[in-house]
Here is the input.
Amino acid sequence: MNKAYILLAIGLILFAGTAYAISVDSVMVDEVAPGQEGIIRINVENDGNDNIESLSIRINFPNSNIIPVGRSEEFLSTLEEDEEESFIFRFKVSNVLSAGTYLIEYDLSYEQDNSDIEQSGNIGIVVSAEPEIEISANTQNSVVGIPGELQIRIINKGLADARFVNLKIESKDLIFLSENSEYIGTIDSDDFETSSFEVIYSNKFPSINVRITYKDFNNEEQEIIKTASLRAYTNKEAVEKGILTKNNASRYVRVIILFFFLWIIYRFIKKRRKKRD
Here is the structure.
């Protein structure tokens, strides 16, 4: 993964007219994925008129989700007037840490004119990850020419949430009795959502395209298109497999004939209207 740097301009903290000799010029932090290691680089400068002694910088790692690799505190015996120094710390984030921005504190202390001075500030660590989307398709009462149910399960195996998820089914082999699309919303990391559609299968081996759009961690829209092959059965096969009983099969045959008859009438009326226009 490419490492990006976050430049944080950190101002001086002033108390009751006391001017600090040390300024924190910049903090550079690696952007990491869950389970990865990164580097924090803190650049300081002595802006005062005198040398300072016993300079210390300590990173206060909050818990086991973000831990130091090596030391969390560095020391410098002397920093002369107008000199700069960089302090480098290594850290690692847990592989179960959710994507987001995490603030951790640092403490800076030193001796100036025989006085002990302390300063503090915050560092932002960005943990980035992407959703990992998988789908599965299941059918209920999948008999050719008879209303049935198509179930689409969307699984997010990634370490980041998928937000503003929208699902759309496209197929020439299905007649949709319900809408062919559905807005789902957010699918959390390591979670899933299931959508159901009322359909009629027009042949024994229907194919569908599942189009999923969502926004990722960086608020950018992503699109995934996956193809799934389904299986539907004739009335005879459905009776043999116990999907239909013989009485139901006869009734469904009549429904199919009626549906086909209505479909022919609809096509006839539609063609006549086109000729008139």
Observations:
- Residues 1-18 have pLDDT under 50 and may be disordered.
